[in-house]
Amino acid sequence: MEGIWYVVGFALAGVSFVFLVIGLSWLISHRTRGSRGKGLPYESGIDTYGDTHGRFGVSYYLYALLFVAFDIEVIFIFLWALVIRDPIPGVLSSMFLFVGILLLGLAYAWRKGVLTWR
After folding, report:
1. Share of the chain above pLDDT 70, in %
2. Is 42 helix (H, G, I), strand (E, B) or coil?
């Protein structure tokens, strides 16, 4: 029963730390320092023009998702190749099946015109 006090103490310390950090960030963020122009968003020191919260096209997100999918695939295949020193046919065929399914997904995206930048 002695160990429960350690758990309670750590839980209390964790919760109080979270509320302390949130409170300090609220205090710091609600100060007004300097001119109103200091709070404006800048890019490379140049004043922004137009809406600073512009929207990106859907094609950008589709390219990003395809990049992440194939980046993870490359990492997975590399680690698989490091672990499997002597590939037996069953293990090798499972990797070819994995790559084939991903290539089918790429062919589907290509056929739907996702890879065409508009």
Report:
1. 78
2. strand
